[in-house]
Every structure is written in C-alpha cells, then in structure tokens.
C-alpha cells in the first residue's frame, strides 16, 4: 500500500497529495475527526505515536514510481510534530527524503517550537515548501481546554514568525473557527507580527451544533477587511463560501491550488 495519496472532498482543498507518517497524536483536540476516521476510541488515538511500519521505505518506493510536481501535505491524520516515540525523527527523515526527490511539501502542525528543530531541512527546500500552523484560539485558557496537548497560541505564532524571518514561506489554517472573535484576534496578531504569508480560512463543521449559531457572512466580511488591505494571500474554503454567498470574492481567493508549494 502506498503512503502518498490524493485526499478526497474538503481535504483536497488543502493539498493535492498527502502522507501520514504517524497514526496517533498527543494534542487531544476536542474536535479531531481522526479517531472516528480510523475507527478508534479517543484512548486508542490520543497517545504518543510511533511511526507507521516501514513508512520511510514505502515513501521512497512511492517517490521512485512518480515525480510529484504539486505539494504533499504532512499530514491530515496525526501531527508530525506532536510528542512521538521517536522524537519526530521520522518526520525529519521523511522531509530529507522528499527533498532528495525535489518534491514540493507542506507541513501543518500545532507543535509550535518542535518544528524549529528541522528549520535547516525546511530551508533546504527553497521555494518548494510551505510550513503552517492551525490557529484556533487567542485566549490561552480556551486553547488549553480545546487542544490540551498542543502548543499555546503565542508559541505557534512565534514559531511562524521565526520560520518567516528565516525565509520559509508560512501559512495559517483557520479551521475550525470555533469563536469568530478569537480567530479575528489571531489574524490581527499575525498581521502585527508579520508571521504569515498565506491564510486559509474555513469554519466549524458539524460539532455539537455550535456552527449553527454563528453569522458566517459577518465573519467573512471581517476577515477580508483585515487581510485584503495587508495584501496577504487568501484562500476561502468552500464550506465558508457556501454560508456567505453574498460576500463577493476575487478569483484568487477561491482557487485552492493558487498558493500551494510546487516544483
């Protein structure tokens, strides 16, 4: 079985290809879909994972079979910079391997400073990589309640700033948006710090009905009012566009492949 695959549905908006190196996570996010997707209980998913069996060998076989000119995301299931049994060494080795095949890559993590140990590898990709973080809450207590094992909001933003200042293209994923006011404060903070190049904006999807009480059209208007004057790269996800049909968008803001890493 290959480990590089083409995501389906909403996941394909984030990346044309993906690879999951670990099938567990220590972040314990309340909204995480992975336990359900893997048919596991929370107890059997939220733990310190080991790398998938022979994942690097299989990854190299995949890369030998096909040249990838569009990005491979690490990852949709499991966070490659959570607390792993191998201290994220498989992540580093996978990145080195992907770079040796001149493959474009995106990394999405809530691991904060753990990402910085591989900054030298990120830099070796040049323009073929973008590194990002999911940003959900500005308030530390709320973040801890919803994402107890993940890095704090400030640590994630500071990590993005270090990466950005090191010449690495950065992105922020605003999905889920649980409290719009928190997401807007995070956007303001990242603009103030100039830590993010590309913003991916979504919504909260089907979590205990919380999304039903949010004015998504107003949220999107507020997002654009912040990001457009800053001339940032923006992608508005389909799920948010569907609930804010009266908000006019530029073509560049609805093209999911416009700002991805590529050869």
From TrEMBL:
Q: Which residues cross the membrane?
A: none
Taxonomically, the superkingdom here is Bacteria
Task: List the keywords (alphabetical).
Answer: Iron, Iron-sulfur, Metal-binding
* Pfam families in the record: Radical_SAM
Work out whether the entry's keyword set contains Amino-acid biosynthesis. no
Q: Where is the Radical SAM core domain?
A: 21-191
The entry lists its GO molecular-function terms as: catalytic activity; iron-sulfur cluster binding; metal ion binding
- Which PANTHER family would you find in this protein's record? RADICAL SAM CORE DOMAIN-CONTAINING PROTEIN, SLR0285 PROTEIN
Q: What is this protein called?
A: Radical SAM core domain-containing protein
**Species of the source:** Zongyangia hominis
Q: What is the lineage of its organism?
A: Bacteria, Bacillati, Bacillota, Clostridia, Eubacteriales
């Amino acid at each position: 079985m290959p480990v590089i695959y083409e995501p389906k549905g909403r996941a394909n908006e984030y990346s044309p290809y993906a690879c999951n190196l670990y099938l567990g996570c220590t972040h314990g996010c309340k909204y995480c879909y992975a336990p359900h997707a893997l048919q596991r209980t929370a107890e059997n998913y939220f733990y310190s994972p080991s790398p998938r069996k022979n994942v690097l060998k299989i990854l190299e076989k995949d890369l030998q079979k096909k040249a990838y000119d569009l990005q491979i995301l690490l990852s949709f299931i499991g966070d490659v910079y959570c607390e792993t049994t191998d201290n994220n060494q498989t992540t580093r080795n996978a990145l080195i391997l992907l770079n040796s095949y001149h493959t474009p890559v995106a990394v999405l993590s809530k691991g904060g400073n753990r990402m910085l140990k591989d900054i030298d590898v990120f830099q070796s990709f040049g323009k073929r990589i973008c590194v990002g973080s999911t940003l959900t809450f500005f308030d530390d207590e709320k973040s801890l309640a919803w994402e107890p094992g993940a890095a704090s909001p400030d640590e994630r933003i500071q990590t993005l700033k270090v990466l950005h200042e090191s010449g690495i293209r950065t992105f922020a994923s605003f999905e889920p948006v649980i409290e719009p006011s928190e997401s807007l404060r995070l956007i303001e903070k990242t603009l103030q710090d100039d830590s993010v190049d590309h913003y991916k904006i979504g919504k909260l999807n089907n979590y205990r009905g919380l999304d039903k009480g949010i004015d998504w059209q107003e949220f999107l208007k507020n997002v654009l009012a912040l990001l457009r004057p800053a001339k940032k790269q923006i992608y508005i996800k389909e799920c948010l566009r569907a609930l804010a049909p009266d908000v006019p968008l530029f073509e560049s803001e609805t093209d999911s492949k416009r700002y991805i890493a590529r050869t």
